[in-house]
Write a structure and sequence with these properties.
This protein is α/β, with parallel strands linked by helices and 303 residues long. It has helices spanning 15-31, 65-79, 99-109, 132-140, 174-190, 217-235, 238-241, 259-269, 284-289, 294-300, and strands at 6-10, 34-42, 89-96, 114-118, 145-148, 165-169, 193-200, 250-256, 274-276. The strands form 2 sheets. A 5-stranded parallel sheet has the order 3-2-1-4-5, sandwiched between helices. The longest helix has 19 residues, at 217-235.
Length: 303
């Protein structure tokens, strides 16, 4: 069972972060967890243009106690939190040159069991793509990150817990199987429906004059689907299939196509309010490949 006791929710006063807080609070109520709201004031450092000019720092300014109290009051007002009605929420504010690094430091310091943040930032440019702070946190975080778009289902709409319909996409790697365990635990906690999806990405057939015509694609596809279905059946434990906490049992789906396209399509068809994905290791190659599946799913998903 996944234990969620401490949740970190960075807030930048954008609508995306406001929506993320609603979801963080719903999860906290479901898991009896605490939410730490963090606001980071960015510090801008001046870089000299000419070599004979000494570099000067435009910041940091040392926030006074009055400054911190003012920011906390604005956070409470922005999030519509009454200090006397919800003891699960605490507030922290700090200043740093790198917002994402400060978020990661705070997550380790708590330590947070989950980071919940909006997919986009305040600036107009970031609204056109995945927010730079969110992307950097996703790339570097050593703990689960829940990203929330502004148009995701309302956090108060679920019937039993934090989520109603969960989609877990697996590629049979170690990290995706860990993600499946996380998804299963969340589904049992919320009495949600759980769909497990495996996407087979077939290489396009090519003609080789030395070999002859390309392979029989329909037959090859059918063989891949059969093997994938058998493998998926073997990795889902019987205890999960028969769990009374999973509404309607575990649904298994095998499809062919581009992984991020199929994940988004199935999520829409199943009206999922949570997609769970495993992110591979943190070496250089994995960071370069990060955008192939995770980034487009995070950027385009409505949940």
């Amino acid at each position: 069972m996944v234990r969620i006791e401490k949740i970190l929710c960075p807030i930048d006063f954008s609508d995306f972060s406001r929506h993320a807080f609603d979801r963080a609070l719903a999860i906290a109520r479901s898991h009896r967890a605490e939410v730490t709201v963090l606001h980071v004031v960015p510090i801008h450092i001046a870089t000299p243009v000419l070599p004979y000019i000494e570099p000067q720092t435009l910041g940091p300014f040392e926030m006074s106690a009055a400054d911190r109290e003012r920011i906390v009051r604005e956070l409470r007002q922005f999030l519509a939190i009454d200090a006397n009605t919800d003891e699960r929420v605490t507030f922290e504010t700090t200043e740093a040159p790198d917002v994402h690094e400060e978020i990661l430091v705070h997550a380790d310091r708590l330590p947070a069991d989950l980071i919940v943040m909006g997919t986009h930032g305040r600036s107009g440019f970031e609204r056109l793509m995945l927010g730079s702070v969110t992307e950097r946190v996703l790339r570097k975080a050593r703990r689960p990150v829940l990203t929330v778009p502004a148009g995701s289902p309302d956090a108060g709409a679920t019937g039993h817990g934090a989520f109603d319909r969960i989609l877990s996409a697996v590629d049979f790697s170690e990290c995706s199987m860990a993600a499946l365990g996380y998804a299963a635990s969340l589904a049992e906690e919320s009495h949600a429906r759980l769909t497990v999806l495996h996407v087979i990405e077939l290489a396009p057939p090519a003609y080789d004059p030395l070999v002859g015509p390309p392979i029989d694609l329909p037959g090859y596809r059918q063989a891949c689907e059969t093997a994938g279905r058998e493998r998926l059946r073997n990795v889902i434990p019987m205890a999960l299939r028969t769990s009374p906490g999973i509404t309607g049992g575990v649904e298994e789906i095998i499809v062919c196509g581009k992984p991020h396209h199929e994940i988004l399509r199935i999520a829409e068809e199943r009206q999922s309010d949570l997609i769970v994905l495993g992110v591979h290791g943190r070496n250089v190659v994995d960071r370069l490949l990060f955008g192939s599946t995770v980034e487009p799913v995070v950027r385009r998903a409505h949940c």
